[in-house]
Amino acid sequence: MRLLSLNPTNYVTILIATFLLLLHAESTRPPFACDSSNPSTKSLPFCKTDLPISRRAQDLVSRLTLDEKISQLVNSAPPIPRLGIPAYEWWSEALHGVANAGPGVRFDGPVKSATSFPQVILTAASFDARLWYRIGQSKNEVRDLTKNACQIGAHVIGTEARAVYNAGEAKGMTFWAPNINIFRDPRWGRGQETPGEDPVVTGKYAVAYVRGLQGDSFQGRKLGSHLLASACCKHFTAYDLDNWNGINRFVFDAHVTQQDLADTYQPPFQSCIEKARASGIMCAYNRVNGVPNCADFNLLSKTARGQWDFHGYITSDCDAVSIIFDDQGFAKSPEDAVVDVLKAGMDVNCGSYLQNHTKSAIQKRKLPVSQIDRALHNLFAVRMRLGLFDGDPTKRRYGNIGPNQVCSKEHQALALEAARNGIVLLKNSAKLLPLPKSSKVAISLAVIGPNADSPKTLLGNYFGPPCKSVTPLQGLRSYVKKNTLYHPGCNAVNCTSVDIEKAVGVAKRANYVVLVVGLDQTQEREDHDRDHLALPGRQEELIAAVAKAAKKPVVLVLLSGGPVDLSFAKYDRRIGSILWAGYPGEAGGLALAEIIFGDHNPGGRLPVTWYPRDYVKIPMTDMRMRAEPSSGYPGRTYRFYKGPKVFEFGYGLSYSAHSYKLSSAVQNKLYLNLTSSGHTDAESSDSVRYHIVSEISEEFCKTKSFSISVEVENQGEMEGKHSVLLFVKRDKHTNGGDPIKQLVGFESVKLNPGETAQVEFRLSPCEHLSSANEDGLMVLEEGSRLLFVGDEEYPIDVVF
């Protein structure tokens, strides 16, 4: 063949171009170890995929020098070139979509954005566990699902996370979500990140999200050792105050009773570990009863790893190790802080404290190297489960997941569905909604308010660049294209300045008015708790003036994470409808418009209690859940709060009415003859017989499980999804602090007009009819209960 002759200039140009192409190829290549082309490492035991992961991790740790070991104890772990191990970033975020809020993910290659779902508090309002799973779910698990409308193929956060990694735009596959702390106080700036105030809802959300993200089936236990992505349940434990009245999360000491720990703060984490099999936990900044969470051996090792059988890694929150010495004064030196957290069972430090002070702790003989080895074993085992020590991951189990699977039509459709199903209709006087959309009825529409056209507000916090963004104004204009008027009303959400004259002028020119107000991240966020429950600034003044001037009662839309006291609007006849839309994500504006114009029947329910504004008299630092009437303390959440409410937990209207009928095969009596199984009845001070649940065998609890069937009928003229919430309450409260009522199950069903469905709840007396005593033990008492849905009740007696 004839060789082309090249002049020196062309030759240099080609060399540079070739180098740049190779550089680009390397930059888009995901980082991994055990490259098959590297003869020095491919034969080492830690690279052999046929060996158990435990043995591989042990082999790898045994090959590291002390300095190399210490270097791996922080979130930004450097490479170990001599073993072909790349750098790894433990900190990535995926609260409601893959985000670039942490250093682990960047959108600087072929993937420029990711599907942005509603903020968690709104997603939780759907009370639809299958929806929660689908948001985190892998496409590879779609085949395991039955072919009904609730389970259509959607491969979202888990799949998009892997796609970003395969595209070379992520330095790790460990995502620090979900946030499963209890939304205890309505002022908490991070309550928006959680599934709400109920431990059952929060626990089920944790299970659904973790199974979906990690690539497990909806039912669980099909995952094996492989992880699509790694989920991390946070913040362990009793963390729900950021910065209030001069007290911040770094120094706060949460005084929590054993009773409240047992039935409120710990159950979501127990579900996350035992049922979801999460591969990560994050210990929180705060202390609980004097002990920093990250330095609590009883919490991390005895409870999580011992009692709940946790197998995964435990990370600190960022700089949570340094504050143990620097801010809390719990440790006497930096080395003591390092010793405290590693001996407690923590594995990796978000920050640099362990990198800076661990060697000194060893040299001073305060810390054995075996504690570092234990932590590294957990860390490398998770990286191996992610397939990052199996050679090129793009040629392995999840290697076919590419950029084309991010922001797909199916994913964006699910984001819209999640927003639709979470939005809560709080008021609909004289059936103002839905508004007419017939072409025969010419309408004009005024859209007023500081949140009407703010794309960023839709996303809440911990978000990445969304695939698209539809604001409420844009969504409403898609229905009323020619006659939609707009005015923001306020200078910003804080509404320190309001232009009532112009807003009123716009309202007067329209047939219908939609006001879009509420909060944003300037009002509630991480490190910023609210100090009141009212709307910011002069928003209420704006609403009142516009409602007075409008031709018809107005529609009020509230964007917020935490609850707001809307008592003024609830009882104002000029405000015909109220919708709460949380922070509804990239498709939130379209979802709102579809509900307002009747293309979707709202079915969301509040996942938190909405309190009156004087609730703020209670210090946020008071962690007590149970009411103490003698001291004037009203309690917290629907389970214990004894005071007036603006809207109740579980409240939500629909364009359809629904009816219920309850039935069960147990016929009102549940006989639990535990004495025949060798158990002795105990008796409380109130002469009520009881048994400690932990002393009852799992087999006995299983055999005594029973079913409650709820017949639900759609009595309206619109199809829609409806959430059935089953509660239990005691006829007589005997156990010093029984909940007023407790959610024991929920299910979302889709019903056509006039259609009836049977919803079955399988209940275990040990799990669903027990309660926590003052010692923090779950006990099953003899006596009467009422199971109820809405106003329909079913009495059941537990008889020993």
TrEMBL record:
Transmembrane segments: none annotated. GO terms for cellular component: extracellular region; plant-type cell wall. One of its GO terms (biological process) is arabinan catabolic process. The keyword Signal applies. It holds the Pfam family Glyco_hydro_3. Residues 722-793 form the Fibronectin type III-like domain. Residues 1-27 form the signal peptide. Belongs to the glycosyl hydrolase 3 family. This is Glycoside hydrolase. It comes from Parasponia andersonii.
